[in-house]
Amino acid sequence: MVDVRLGDLMKRYVWLMSALSLLSPLVGVMPVAGTARAQTLSGDGLVNALRRGGYVIVLRHTSSPREVPDKQTANADNINQERQLDQNGRTTAIAMGKALRDLKIPVGDVFTSPTYRAMETIRLAQLANARPQVELGDGGQGMQSVAQSQAAWLRMKVTQFPNGTNTILVTHLPNMAGAFPQLTAGLADGEAFVFGSDGKGGAALVARVKIEEWPAMLH
User: Fold this and answer.
1) pLDDT (tens digit, 9 = 90+) per residue, 70-104?
2) Fold assignment, 31-216
3) Rounded to an integer, what is the distance from CA 193 to the centroid of its chain?
4) Is the alpha carbon torsion for 203, 184, 144, 132 positive or negative?
5) Contact (Cβ atoms closer than 8 angstroms) between residue 82 and residue 115
6) Pick from 93, 98, 95: which is nearest to 118 by CA?
7) How far apart are CA 203 and CA 214, in angstroms?
8) From its phi and psi, is residue 34 left (phi > 0), alpha (psi between -120 and 50) or beta?
């Protein structure tokens, strides 16, 4: 028989718990869908990093009812009667854009889904020179699945880091879920992923920002 004393068992337990505690921070940086998951920036640290530029911000368009408007409720410029933002979506888009300007976060290239609700988000946020990009769209499928080619395009785009500015991509939940399936749990309307370089030619998720958090960074 092997004589194992209680003290020896306790020592082994303490050693195992210590080892696990050292490993746990590494869980967040495992490769996920072509990116690394390393949420490391928030508050002033995130603002200061974005002021220096070099990040790609992927934004889900702001709040929009699933029902399409009729002729009486459609915006005057919504000639195709597509889904459009509700009052919360409009308010938060305006507040986000103002916060980016007040925080002096430089915005360079802006790419957007060609859908009305995404373009409305861009317009109300006053993000200049936005370019519609079919790969960011919903393909006329609403909330249905997104083609693998669109997901691959988005994964590639978040690895193209600008110098001195930040790139913004406005798209839809299915697009973000298709490209980053392990990152999108609980993704809210208007929520953003902020990607930075992982130092190995790929991208790392460095922050998730809810739409209402942009103005809060001013305080």
Assistant:
1) 888 888 988 988 999 999 999 999 999 999 999 99
2) Rossmann fold (3.40.50)
3) 2
4) negative
5) yes
6) 93
7) 22
8) left
| Mean pLDDT (the chain, rounded) | 84
Question: Rounded to the nearest 5°, which phi and psi values hold at 61?
Answer: -55, 155
pTM of the model: 0.81
Task: Report the alpha-carbon distance of residue 181 to residue 114 in Å, rounded.
Answer: 23
What integer is the mean pLDDT of 170-197?
Answer: 96
Residues near 125 by beta carbon (within 8 Å), at least 6 away in sequence? 93, 94, 96, 97, 100
Q: What is the pLDDT of residue 45?
A: 95
Structure confidence by residue, pLDDT tens digits, 199-208: 999 999 999 9
Whether 67 shows a pLDDT value over 60: the answer reads yes
Q: Please report the pLDDT score of residue 147 as a whole number.
A: 82
What are the structural domain ranges in the chain? 31-216
Q: Enter the tokens of residue 153.
A: 């395009």
Q: For residue 93, with 0-12 CB atoms within 10 Å meaning exposed, 13-18 middle and 19 or more buried, which class applies?
A: buried
Q: Measured in whole angstroms, how far is the alpha carbon of residue 196 from the centre of its chain?
A: 12
Contacts of 187 (CB under 8 A, 6+ apart): 60, 173, 176, 177
Which are the contacts of 6, defined by CB distance < 8 A and separation ≥ 6? none
